[in-house]
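Folding Problem: From Residues to Backbone Shape
Fields: amino acid sequence; protein backbone structure tokens
RECORD BEGINS BELOW THIS LINE
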Amino acid sequence: MSALAAIERFNDVVEPALYVFGISAVVAETLYLAKKKLPRDVASRRLGVKCGLLAFGAEGIWHATAMFAIQMWVYEHRLFDVGFAWWVWLLCFVVNDLMFYVSHRAQHRCRVLWAIHVVHHSPKHYDLTTGIRGSALGFASAFPFYVWIPLLGIHPLIFLTVDKLFKFYGLAYHTEFVDKLGPLDRILVTPSNHRVHHATNPQYIDRNYGGFFALFDRLLGTFTDEQEKPVYGLVKDWDGRALWDCQVHEFRDIVRDVRQARSAREALGYVFGPPGWKPS
């Protein structure tokens, strides 16, 4: 069996496994919360599941059709021929993690990207349904940051497989059941580190953007340890339960602000400036 055929077979296993893992984990968490009679926002958790189905469905279709085709075209113009050696997978993993950091930071600092990513940050609780809550346009905000990777000679199937494995890990750290993990908190993105990222406490805002390693947060000065108990949700007052509202409320606010803009510069600031930007 060729290396490419083996990757295709492995990828065919990983994708359904991701969905089985996600569904099983959410069901197990729900049963545990119910058995222990722990407080939970049932309506918000249901909204998280709906958003997750929408986001993962849209992304799955995008990756299986347009994304793969575009990356194959990019791969045909690759700068290097690196094949399918083990270190290519490691390279893809590190590059993917770097792009996760860069794209994630951009999604918090550019309002039109934040309008997509805000869906993930909207719940006032932190659990696995928060982990799967996403926007139907999430794939669009990630596209510019990942499409170029095959230029390095990394085959698109390697990228898609690594990206799916990232999602396994990314879901797992959306939990409050795991406390600090000692030295691992200094190296990896752990539940503690990512709780900081989802918090609205002033000292936690726009911190801990990493996806797997904490390295890039540490190198670029955006890492913060969990100290004070996190308060989740959005800085702005939003606590809706409707699927459509959850998906578009920030876009609606952008349109409102642009209509009130007094100049083209102000309009651009409302669209591409950081969330909360106001003209001086």
